[in-house]
Amino acid sequence: MYPSPLAALFALLSTRALASPLAPSTQPICLEICYLQKPDCARNGFPMQQNECWTCCTREPPKPEPPLAICLAICYFEKPECGRGSYAAKQNECWTCCTPQQAQVPPTDA
Length: 110
Hints:
The chain has one helix at 5-19, and strands spanning 29-30, 46-50, 53-58, 69-71, 87-91, 94-100. With 110 residues, the chain is α+β, with helices and mostly antiparallel strands. Among the domains are: 26-63, no CATH class; 69-100, no CATH class. The strands form two sheets. The protein has a three-stranded antiparallel β-sheet with strand order 1-3-2, with no helix packed on it. The protein has a three-stranded antiparallel β-sheet with strand order 4-6-5, with no helix packed on it. Strand 5 and strand 6 form a beta hairpin. Keywords: Signal. Residues 1-19 form the signal peptide.
């Protein structure tokens, strides 16, 4: 049994597509937010006006950075007593408990 010409053409096009790298996008990557005034954008970002809105854009995709700490989504009005390996942190008007990312949280005994 011989391979069909169509299968050979498909195989040739598939390997050719894998061999040619994709060109990087020239379109900026922008936040989906509408500022009424020109914003101060984060590092490696630039402001761009789209119709009536301003937004922040970048030329390269963001590289995720791990958080320095993982904090509870709880608002205490007074400084709390946090568990082992955690610390109290004030965020705006709220207090919460945070754990450094490197710290291992011990399992709880049930």
